[in-house]
UniProtKB/TrEMBL annotation:
A GO cellular-component term linked to this record: cytoplasm
UniProt-recorded Gene Ontology molecular function terms: F-box domain binding
Transmembrane stretches, start-end: none
Domain of life of the native organism: Eukaryota
PANTHER family: SERINE/THREONINE/TYROSINE-INTERACTING PROTEIN, SERINE_THREONINE_TYROSINE-INTERACTING PROTEIN
InterPro entries: Prot-tyrosine_phosphatase-like, STYX-Interacting_Phosphatase
Name the record gives this protein: Uncharacterized protein
Amino acid sequence: MENDNDMNIDGEASEISPSVWLGSYSVLSQQPFLDAKNIKVIINCSPTCKFLKELSASGMSMSSDLVILLLDPPFDSGKVTDDEMPLLNDYMSRFNRILQNYISFFYNLNPEVNNLIHKFPQNKPLNISSPILTGNLKEQFFNINRLLKLLKNMNNSIGTLIVSPDGNSQLSTGVAMSYLMDNYNFNFDASYTNLKITRPLIIPLNYQYYDDLLIIENLKKFYQENTSIKQTNNVLLTTNCNLKRKNDYDYIWVGGSKRKNVE
């Protein structure tokens, strides 16, 4: 039996930071682990439809407060086959609703949001219109890390799982590195070195490969811009904030059921 304090589960997942795990698809079928670590955010770093098939086959229990993001920069819905479309439609119907509810309650309607997360480049707002994150990789690094920071400020007990087929892909490595950059102010080399110590099997990023080069360049841009933003906006109130819903006295809780406010 696995000890709840173990850093690794048979090499399938590695804890890169408190409550943040980097792992393989096989972790999706390990419900006791997901429950014990209170995994409420999953970030997939592989082709969308490939992941959705694995998710469907895993038998994973998917609660109504689970956020699943699919980081898939080249995703094109026009290339989804007829066989894959039902899985995609079901995913979008369920998880876009959860995502937009969280963004609405905890960001758009939250007067304390500027005290909870740092700003975006050019002071842009958090704007994730779909749980499938496509296009500019640097922008998605900002979206992922700001969203994680916001959710953790609402409930710091939630766990995050970053997944790819074997847990060692270049894109999942990039997401994990961006998290270390954001939370520990590690630069590119320091974030990679620390991640490599925690998960030795990650695939090195190679400047000679175009896809790897995109990850490298966007990670470095993310680090530079994020550092600059924090230097000019370096005081945040990080105390957890529970946002009261409009027109009633209920609270919405990340990673938990709705609770009644007693006044």
